Amino acid sequence: MTLTERAPAKINLCLHLGPTRPSDGRHELVSVMQSLTLADELTLEPAPEGAGEDRIVCPGVEGPNLGGAALAAFRAATGWEAPPQRLTIVKRVPVAAGMGGGSGDAAAALRLAARASGLGGHALMHELATGLGADVPAQVRPGRVLATGAGERVERLPDGGSFGVLVLPGTRELSTAAVYREADRQGLARDEGHLRRRHAEVQEAASGGDLPLEMLVNDLQPAALALAPEIDEALAAARAAGADVALVSGSGPTALGLFLGSDGAQRARLAADALAGRRPAPLVAAPEPNWPA
Ligand code: ATP
Fold it and tell me: N or C, where is the chain less crowded by C-beta within 10 Å?
């Protein structure tokens, strides 16, 4: 049996950073996470005869793979004993770019394993996702969510209005951990009370549909800019190409231009055409509508 899944990228329409939790040292956050139509493609099929264990094929990504970690975690938790599988991941989402590529692959690998085995209820999928990484729970069911805690508390939000996304990938990879360390060094985290007020404001605004422009902010942006100052030029290029909002995606270094409104998709495409000479080449995406439960 061969199964396929898309693994949409995510962007953080807002990311408010809070203090670290005493329990596990991870930062609390309040973030509206939106999946994009830009997506990796995963295929799960029986591995060729003679393979002793699951195989992960993921051109462009070296080292341990989050998709493989997800399969292993699923097998361990459910006792799924199917013969070795081959998981092939075709990357379309920029790597180490702040677009949740690896996390999205992990979530998609969990969905594939659940489909292939017939095992894995909602609660178990969420628990496995939480163990795989802070950005994984929000991506088990792609769409738009409000993520809180360290990302493990996920609340479904209604689809927002239409908009287009111009993606300007960075010229280097940026480690999420390094960006968080720099955020700590700069003292960017808000205190508990401030974060709680932000939570209430974002929840109210997002549950009604679109966030007002002034709420589209990423607290990690100054940290990403300090480590990769060239992002500033990419943000300026997005603005100059007509973006209504330019912001860093997650922990960067990808710069995003958001083009709001029903003509947003078309304006984002025109902007990408105008910036076609850039390397890495600009990409265009749209919000991925909420997947059915
Ligand atoms: P996030 O936003 O989830 O914190 P990111 O989007 O900044 O992460 P990823 O593309 O997930 O970054 O890559 C981070 C690192 O994870 C890479 O340097 C890579 O070595 C590793 N990795 C493991 N599995 C994958 C995968 N399937 N796709 C991409 N990177 C992977």
Answer: C
CATH class of the 163-285 domain in this structure: alpha beta
Question: Ligand 1 centre and the CA of 218: distance in Å?
Answer: 19
Q: Can you tell me which atom of ligand 1 is nearest the CA of 63?
A: 20
Please state the pTM of the whole predicted model: 0.96
Nearest CA to ligand 1 atom 29: 102
Active site residue 40: no
- Sheet hosting strand 245-248, strand order edge to edge: 245-248, 255-260, 163-168, 283-285
What is the domain partition of the chain in residue ranges?
3-156, 163-285
pLDDT digits (tens, 9 = 90+) for 90-129: 999 999 999 999 999 999 999 999 999 999 999 999 999 9
Interhelix angle for 101-117 vs 122-132, to 10°? 150
**Contacts with 176 (C-beta within 8 Å, 6 or more apart), sequence order:** 96, 98, 250, 251
245-292 pLDDT tens trace: 999 999 999 999 999 999 999 999 999 999 999 999 999 999 999 999
User: Which residues line ligand 1 at a C-beta cut-off of 6 Å?
Assistant: 58, 61, 63, 65-67, 89, 95-103, 105, 135, 173, 176, 250-251
Q: Which fold has domain 3-156?
A: Ribosomal Protein S5; domain 2 (3.30.230)
d(CA 191, CA 199): 12
Q: Is 237 helix (H, G, I), strand (E, B) or coil?
A: helix
Catalytic residue among 40, 54, 105, 135: 135
Going by alpha carbons, the residue nearest to atom 14 of ligand 1 is 96
The amino acid at residue 223 is A
How far from the centroid of its chain's Cα atoms is residue 242's Cα?
24
> Which among 120, 98, 97, 7 has a CA at the least distance from the CA of 58?
7
91 catalytic per annotation: no
The residue type at 101: G
